[in-house]
Amino acid sequence: MAVQLPVSTTLSQLDALVQRVKEHAHAFARLTLDDRIHLLEQMREGYGQVAEESVIAACQAKGIDPNSPLAGEEWLSGPMVTIRILRLTAESLRDIKQYGAPRIQKSWLSHLPDGRLVVKLHPTTKIDSTLLAGHTGYAYMQAGVTAENLREHQASFYRKPHEGRLCVVLGAGNVNAIPPTDVIYKMFVEGAVCVLKMNPVNAYLGPFIERAFKPVIDRGFLAVAYGGAEEGAYLIQHPLVDEIHITGSDKTHDAMVWGPAGPEREARKQRGDPLLKKEITSELGNITPVLVVPGPYDDGELTFQGRNVAGMVANNASFNCISAKLLVTSRDWAQRGRAIDLIERGLQGAQVRRAYYPGAEARWQQFTEGRKGLRLVGAPKKGELPYALILDVDPNNPQDRVFQEEPWCTVLSETSVAGADPASFLANAVKFVNENVWGTLCATLVVHPRTMKDPAGREAVEKAIRDLRYGGVTVNTWAATAFGLGTTPWGGYPGSPATRIQSGRGWVHNTFMLEDIEKSVVRAPLKVFPISPWFPGHRTLDKLAKGLTELELNPSWLKVPGLAATAMRG
Prior knowledge:
Helices cover 42% and strands 16% of the residues. The protein has 22 helices and 20 strands. It has an eleven-stranded mixed beta sheet. Strands 6-5-4-7-8 form a five-stranded parallel beta sheet, with helices on both faces. Helix 3 packs antiparallel against helix 4 and helix 17 (422-436) runs parallel beside helix 19.
């Protein structure tokens, strides 16, 4: 059955929506904490009511059997993350009411060698530590944030509220948690009312958001609009709109801010004279690198990480800004070939997927045509794409497409740099990705535990984590963990100028409402049991993901044993 898409909102209807929401901006800015908490709880309950229907619609749109284990992807990347962030945001508002800021315990604080503050953000509850055993999440803060003044770098809207602002949120089309959670952040962390314009690719989700978020829509604090580039352009230029948030591509961002590509755009950039002078925050994609640090891996460990990386490629048909896109290995590492073979084996266990995102087939051809060292995995039918491994890309040609353009399809490239030991490899690999690979959103390190036990190896890894210019760095796990925790801030590495925006600026999720953040860091063991939910061929993913969603709706220790048993059968 075809997914029903809402009709585009007319320009006169957009005027009416903007006018109505703007009229309620001041009232929303002045809501009591109790009122905000009540709204969040209503929205969480509402999202629980539409969860299953929204998952079925997403499965239909993406060519997934809604009764198959693979449907669990849509439970996790839609309702589960959304409901979790609604719950955590409400908890933070309760903390603000009691303590003046989301509560951070002194035992969660530590320091980097240069004295900068580190805030541990996961786990903060026993349930979370049980569900993600061995995983820890942190925020590395910018210089000037200290243990003594940390509260001054949290929840500034609640310390000094503005008089009311209207934000247009241009929602992403690939991951269904992104539009609602971007709205939650702008409304309940930054205090802005919102007009959410759905991306045409997942506009089918809009009616579910309207039903789930009816309490804030009825009070004039939120409106949902539909349409494409014309409607988006009209909204961002509307005189009543104060700011914009976009999750999408840097090309869309630049067209909005600087105008169409060409000499006039370049002249504006040179003058520092953008067409769009409103405040804009953004998350704009990434060529996500996975740096495999040489170490004494046995075949079981390499097999596990092969499935791990394969899952980072295959999830959501590789239409994720955090899909693994560039494998960086050591050319001096004896196990390099074996590691690549095991990633290929991992992809052989992944289902070939419908290429549902517009333009995917043409992009896939651009990346793979005429490539040496190309391996194809899978037997695609019409409308599907095989997984493509592009091996041994020359790192001395930094203008190669694989380093400069996000594939946004089922392509994983591999390049190698010199370095037989962790320190020399990481020095070369970090420099390479920082200077030559487009994007600043997230990067992953695969590190053997013996490397971390060796003082020199540990020092090299910790230095690499600090030096990587990415807003999220994960160790031995996919960046989706950092995205889904909700407590860890999510966004591009700070400091990209609007003239070269890279992965964007600003943070979302970040339910502890931290400010002046440098990056998030999530660490995990080299191998975990049960396997991670994105592993290809996970047998109980649908049941596990639905159970996790129900846990976020109504947390209870009584649900944990059943979830654990389900996970172990994966």
